[in-house]
Structure formats: structure tokens, C-alpha cells
Amino acid sequence: MKIVAARLHRVRLPLVHEFRTSSHGKSMLDHILVELIDASGAVGWGEIASPSDPFYAPETVESCWHIAERYLVPAILGKEWDRPEELPRLWAKVRGNQFAKSGLDTAGWVLWATINGTPLATALGGTRSEVVAGVSLGIEPSIDALLTEVGRHLAAGYPRVKLKIAPGWDVEPVRAVRSAHPDLDLHVDANGIYTADQSDQLRALDEFGLTMIEQPFAPRDLLAHAKLQREIATPICLDESVETLEDLEIALSLQAIRVLNIKVSRMGGLTAARAAHDLAHEAGIPVWCGGMHEFGIGRAANVALSSLPGFSLPSDVSASAKYYAQDVITPPVVATQGVVQVPTTAGLGHEVDTDFIAQNTVVSSELRA
Ligand code: OSB
Ligand code: MG
User: Fold this and answer.
1) CATH of the domain at 19
2) Domain that holds residue 91
3) Do 327 and 277 have their domain in common?
4) What integer pLDDT is reported at residue 22 of this predicted model?
5) Is 93 a catalytic residue?
6) Ligand 1, closest atom to CA 164?
7) pLDDT at 24
8) Are residues 185 and 72 in the same domain?
9) pTM score, whole prediction
10) Residue 132 maps to a domain
């Protein structure tokens, strides 16, 4: 394979429901869609799902555009390759910038699967024909509003709910949801907002039978996670702390982790996400696939990844419709009673709606070998 041209499209879509985390709120998102074109004319699409602000990870939409256009695309244009795993080696000199790398890595996998007539999930080694989806619910203006949101998604058939928490929005919302739904598979995600001296609030969550507490402390503070895990029975899940395989090895050796959220974006692509899955699976750590409110291209990649055997917990791969009235792929990702079917057609398994993309593009750029 040889990539002879690449296009970047900055695409803006409105969210159907404002999403608020411990750091900020959003009502529309700009993601960068990546189109890699092989010498044969075949096309592979990927998505750079970076938030616009550097609050989840250090990257922004602008930094991703810069890194992709100036370093990553030039590193792969005109180079011969056989397997998608070779692409990250071509840009290995570029440190960090996982979201930017992820969009290109995914496009490489989709291109390879398309040319080889293989579903993306099969290309990755997936074994599941369907994936159980959960929902991630943002911080709501009131407990009543949160209970309404939870009820709406349970009625839609989602079997697991994750709640965003922050100091001042933790024990009470969790108590309210738990008393309304005693048997619900429920977990919380703090996006790293707590400091070690606020551990009392986190220990107070131990009585609610949560499936996990996700990323209570700052990403680099693995010692605080290890200490809290010694003090509570609820498993600690890491998200932001694990950007590389080495991060995962350190977290495992410190016993700072009992569950891993694998995000394609955060790991720098499907190649690294799959390697993280393999390592966690060997270590006996259950994994699930996290999301970044992906448009359909990134969402379809998440579904394919979630078909690997270690993804034994419900993933944040809810239907396109949870976030977008219309998606960039047809058909959109759909969940029936909380279950998403893994596509069995070649490549991404969905058509890319280039007209809809063009209508919603803010800026695009083409680079040639
Ligand atoms: O921590 O999982 C997170 C969205 C933006 C930033 C961080 C996170 C999230 C989500 C979204 O929870 C989950 C999804 O895409 O469905
Ligand atoms: Mg998270």
C-alpha cells in the first residue's frame, strides 16, 4: 500500500443535548475527519476526536490539525507499507499527540481492511458479533433532571449508566440514582478533578455498589489512585492516566488499576488500543471502550475495537442518535436494547456521507506525495 494523498476536513456538528463534565460544557463539536488515499484509489477514513479545549488531554483541534498536517501526513505520504501496524512506526519521532495520531492510524486500518475486503473488526482480531453499549451522562442542572436522563436511557434499553461527578455533585446524585434503580450497573467518572485531600467524598461512594470509580485523581497521580484502591472495595478504573502501554504497566505494578477504559483517541489509534487490550487481558484486568463523543467514523472504529475478547464490560459506544441528529455515516451506529451489531461488511462497515460532511465542513486541506 502507498498513500498518495491525504485530506483533512474540520467538521462541525451540533450535539442534541449539552454535555457537561467536571471541567466544562459543550453544545457543538469540531472533529477532524482524515481521508487517506491509496495509489489504487481506495480511500480510508479516520477521525481525530479531540475536544476543542485542552481540559481532557493536552491536545486541541488546532494542535491536532497542526501536528497532522505538518508532521504525521508527511511522515506517511509516498511510503510503501503492508500492515497498518507499520504506520505508527513511520511517525514514531513525534512524541505524544495521541488524538492526532489516532485519526491517521484509524484511517490506515480502515484503508487496509477496505483493500483486503475484510470487516474492520475482523482485521483487528475481533471475536464478538455484538457489543453491549452503556451511556455516559453529563452533570445535569438538578438531581431531578439527572433522574429524567437516567430513566430516558434505561427506557431505551441501555443496561449500564455512567455518571460524571465532581466535588459538590457526587454522593447526593449517586444516592438518588441508586435508590431509584437499586440493581442498575452504575459507575461514576470524575475526569481527574479530585485532590488527595478530598478522598473522604470518594470513600463515601463505596457504599453504593458502584461497578467502578473512573479516574478520580489527576492523570499523573498514580500513587493517589493506588492508595484509594487500598482503602475502598469499589474497583478503580483509569482513563486519562493511561496514554501508553508503559503507563498501563506502571499502573498495574502499583496496583492503581482494576479496570481499564481504553479509548482509541487517547492511546493514539487502534494499533496501540489493541495492544493495551492484549496487555490488560493477560493481566486479568477487564476493559471497556470509552468514547469522545465521536462522529460515526470514530464511533464505528470503537465498535470494531470493542469486538475484541477482553472487552467484557459495557462500553461507551452508544448510538449516534444519543449525540447527533444526523451522522457522517449511513447507516448511523444504532443500539437495539443496548446492543450494537458489529458490521460484517468490508472496511468501516458503513458508507461515509461525503455530501453531509461537505455541508458541515469548516475548513479542509489536501496534501499530496
Ligand atoms: O472521560 O469518558 C470521558 C467525553 C469527553 C471527555 C471525556 C469523557 C467523555 C465521555 C463521553 O464520557 C463518552 C461517549 O463518547 O459516549
Ligand atoms: Mg473517563
Assistant:
1) 3.30.390.10
2) 3-117+355-368
3) yes
4) 74
5) no
6) 12
7) 79
8) no
9) 0.96
10) yes
Ligand 1 site-directed mutation target among 264, 316, 318, most atoms within 8 Å of CB: 316
Residue 129 maps to a domain: yes
Q: Which residues lie across from 160 on neighbouring strands?
A: 185
The pLDDT > 70 percentage for the chain reads: 100
- What CATH number should be reported for the domain holding residue 172? 3.20.20.120
**Displacement of CA 268 from its chain's centroid (Å):** 11
Within-domain flag for 43:
yes
Give the count of domains, the chain: 2
Catalytic residue among 101, 162, 164, 322: 164
**35 Rama class: left (phi>0) / alpha (psi -120 to 50) / beta:** beta
Whose alpha carbon is nearest atom 9 of ligand 1?
Answer: 292
Domain assignment of residue 349, yes or no:
no
CA dist 299 and 87 (Å) reads 21
Residue 340 contacts residue 303 (beta carbons within 8 Å): yes
**Ligand 1 atom closest to the CA of 135, numbered from 1:** 16
* pLDDT exceeds cutoff 80 at 21: no
What is the number of the ligand closest to the CA of 188?
A: 2
Q: For 112-162, what is each residue's pLDDT tens digit?
A: 999 999 999 999 999 999 999 999 999 999 999 999 999 999 999 999 999
Residue nearest to atom 5 of ligand 1 (CA): 292
Between CA 30 and CA 49 the distance in angstroms is 8
Q: What pLDDT digit, counting tens, does each position of 326-349 carry?
A: 999 999 999 999 999 999 999 999
Q: In what order do the strands lie in the sheet with 43-48?
A: 43-48, 25-38, 3-20, 361-368
Q: Has 227 been annotated as catalytic?
A: no
Pocket test for ligand 1, best of 21, 212, 215, 259 (most atoms within 8 A of CB): 21
